[in-house]
Amino acid sequence: MEIVGIIIAGLIIGLLGKLVAPGDKDNTPIWLTLLCGVGGVLLGMVVYQAFGGSDTNGIDWVRWIVSIAIAAVLVVLASTLTGRNTGARRSAHR
């Protein structure tokens, strides 16, 4: 059941990560954005626990903020590596 929660949270976090990521000319496909969200949730949990975070009795907002930040970084990396960020190419040609 936990894996289903991680996938659902990853989909939401991926979309939030795309909103947080800079650049309005990002043409990254939605499936890659959602994959970055799932990766952001998984990496966010690992990073949070590596820096001393532990389970709480409620919503752990710090863990979710870390997950959103990591998902945003993954979305930016995905758009850069796939060459689909058109804003970056325009500024490079100036």
Describe this entry's structure for a reader.
There is one protein chain. By secondary structure, this protein is an all-alpha fold. 73% of the residues lie in helices and 0% in strands. The chain is built from four helices and no strands. The protein has helices at 2-20, 30-50, 61-82, 86-92. The chain is elongated and about 40 Å long.
Question: Which tags fit this structure?
Answer:
73% helix, elongated, 0% strand, single chain, 94 residues, mainly alpha
Sequence-ordered SSE layout with sheet pairings:
Blueprint: H1 2-20, H2 30-50, H3 61-82, H4 86-92
Helix pairs in contact: 1-2, 1-3, 2-3
Family: Belongs to the UPF0410 family.
Membrane topology: Multi-pass membrane protein
Transmembrane segments: 6-23, 30-49, 61-81
Spell out the helices and strands N to C: HHHH
State the distance separating the first and last CA atoms: 51 Å
- From the alpha carbons, calculate the radius of gyration and give it in angstroms: 14 Å
- What's the β-strand tally? 0
| Biggest sheet character | none
Strand content is under 5%
- Globally, the shape reads elongated
> Averaging pLDDT over every residue, what do you get?
74
- The structural class is mainly alpha
Count every helix, treating DSSP H or I runs of 4 or more residues as helices.
4
Query: Helix fraction?
Result: over 70%
